[in-house]
Write a structure and sequence with these properties.
Structural class: mainly beta
Largest sheet: 7 strands, mixed
CATH topology of one domain: At1g16640 B3 domain
Distance between the termini: 39 Å
CATH class of one domain: Mainly Beta
Order of helices and strands: EHEEEHEEHEEEEEHEEEEEEH
Number of helices: 5
Shape: globular
Length: 320
């Protein structure tokens, strides 16, 4: 069986108290795979990981990129040797998602972007967005890097590129994950030589959204597997102790709380719900709070009453 040993820093930065990772690939399925220790290293080894490999990892794969979406939740994309995303990750396959490519920085040679990654190869300049808010304007040059091959690729040059390298402190061997945001704009994330991401990144525009991903029949009741959150800070959750997953039905929202958790809610009679979509548009709804107590089950039923039909329509939520 093919196992995947995870880097040493996984335990320090990513390992939670759970021994399960939720992985989403280009087939739109979410795989619930067990992470376990093999010879003092954390590894993915079980049948779900084997199923993920079989369905999502083609032979030409050179690098696997785990993009954190939330607690124990990762979108996994793959790169071929030339840095291009492997087949299956294009827009026609998984909907309106921007594509990536992977490059390696080497100050003594060219830092190349795969041949068909940039939408207009003759555009003389591009805007780089780094760590969500730093912007650099770089020049683009079309080159033929291999004398014995008719392959042409792109590289960035000029004062803007030099400023980007100096400001970000990128070192030789660091990887650069570029995302083509279109309109001559690229988002760039820096990955250290050990594979750990070194910069913040707004991942909302890079994750697959449509078509809705199917769920294995054995996991129909696990709402976590259906979750696709577009909130900008979702990936920053330290834990999910106060996160609730529920289906949108256009009816009054009913949530089950433990008995002690609703004590603070009893002082409130109204709530404001806020949703911000991937385009940055915000929507709000006022809701009435009703709390019902089940003395037998020792739990509280929190009901939010409001115009859920209109709110769902405004936010483009999809009901059953």
């Amino acid at each position: 069986m093919l196992g995947q040993v995870l880097p040493d820093y996984f335990e320090e930065y990513f390992k939670s108290e759970n021994d399960v990772l939720h992985l989403t690939g280009n087939d739109r399925l979410c795989y619930k795979t067990v992470v376990e220790q093999k010879e003092d290293r954390w590894a993915l080894w079980d049948l779900q990981w084997q199923a993920f490999i079989s369905a999502n990892v083609p032979d030409q794969t050179s690098d696997i990129h785990f993009v954190k979406q939330g607690q124990d939740d990762y979108y996994v994309t793959l790169y071929a040797k030339d840095g291009s995303e492997c087949a299956g990750y294009d827009r026609s396959m998984i909907g309106p998602r921007y594509i990536r490519c992977l490059s390696t920085y080497n100050p003594s040679s060219l830092t190349l972007l795969s041949g068909d990654f940039i939408q207009d190869i003759w555009q003389p300049s591009f805007k780089l967005i780094y760590s969500t808010d730093m912007i650099f304007y770089v020049k683009n040059e079309r080159v033929k890097p291999y004398e014995d091959r008719a392959v042409r690729m792109n590289r960035f040059i000029g004062d803007g590129w030099d400023d980007f390298i100096e400001t970000t402190g990128i070192e030789s061997g660091h990887r650069l994950a570029f995302t083509n945001m279109e309109r001559y704009t690229l988002s760039v994330a820096v990955i250290g030589g050990d594979g750990l991401g070194l910069s913040k990144e707004d991942i909302r525009f890079q994750l697959p959204k449509r078509p809705p991903r199917p769920i294995f029949s054995s996991d129909r009741n696990d709402l976590r597997l259906e979750h696709l959150c577009s909130w900008a800070h979702h990936a920053d959750h330290e834990n999910e102790d106060h996160v609730i997953y529920t289906r949108f039905t256009e009816d009054d929202l009913k949530l089950v709380y433990d008995f002690d958790e609703t004590e603070q809610l009893r002082k409130y009679t109204r709530a404001k719900l806020v949703h911000q979509n991937v385009m940055g548009n915000g929507f709000q709804m006022r809701a009435e709070i009703v709390i019902k107590h089940d003395s037998i089950k020792k739990e509280e039923l929190l009901i939010l009453k409001g115009d859920w039909h209109q709110f769902g329509k405004d936010c483009a939520f999809v009901g059953p």
